[in-house]
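>> received
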Amino acid sequence: MFFVRPIAHDDLPSVLALSERTGTGLTTLPANGDRLSQRIERSIASFDGASGQSNACYMFVLAESGNGAPGRVVGISAIEAAVGLNEPWYNYHVGTLVHASRALDVYTVAPTLFLSNDHTGHTELCSLFLDQRYRIGKNGALLAKSRLMFIAEFADRFSTKVIAELRGRLEPDGTSPFWEGLGRHFFAMEYSTADYLTGIGQKSFIAELMPKHPVYVNLLPPSAREAIGSVHADTVPARAMLEQEGFRYEGYVDIFDAGPTLECTRDNIDALRRSSVMPCTLGEEDPVPDSLTDDILWLVCNRKFAQFRALVTAAPARVDRFPLLPYAAEALGVAEGDSVRAVPLAPADR
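>> returned
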């Protein structure tokens, strides 16, 4: 069984091992023990209530229990409560400039990239990574969507706008077409180096070296133009999941790989809007296979802050008291009559 919980000090070796498998482009999860340790400390302080919103970071892990491997960490995800308040937050806004000459009867529309800080103060879903061996069943959906349940339960700790910056298109050798077409001309370094420096918090070089004027997209090579707003092959499922929950691409892209930033008003996220709080009831182990019942899969979490837990379990499509089997109740840390927050995992079942 898998469940989501807040990250702990002892998870550092597992998270570092995961970060070493992410490859380039996942800036918020650098393969750097010191930086990851600092983020874990920030997360623990946030769950302890010792951080203000401007510095709050909530990190979660997907842990396995049972099958002889209790506590194994196989995935990670996080929420930054408010980006850009302590470290600059940069992206490109895809816009247009119109050039016209009445004398020559010429009218052209040129797509452009403007350096922007427009998302400063918004809440970010970030650092989503699941070990390749465990990308089965509903593990990915649980790891990603449990963050939405946490935001739903503790909405006052987050901004009214939620964003997710997705990893952009990369070539099989790890190079970024967008970086090769634009960034390299200004930064004179490899894409992986710039991504790593940003991940460990050394962002001053961005302001120092970035072009200060709009970039005309038509002047970029075709491969760079095609990469604008496209995602990494491994990120396609995450983009689809976010779009099902109401997130949309509004023309903002990453300055390094041009991956899209998806955004949604917090209270319009489907999982938040449709989740319900209800008491739980504990039953006996059910011998009937799920395939022989009319149950659907639900995403369920407890309502505890520092001891937050979430998992996926089967239950009838309509319930007034949420039924939990003993092992699920134990994983969530709830007892008979305690309230839980629940929502059907698939938007089509809501």
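>> Residues 11 and 33 are 12 Å apart (CA to CA).
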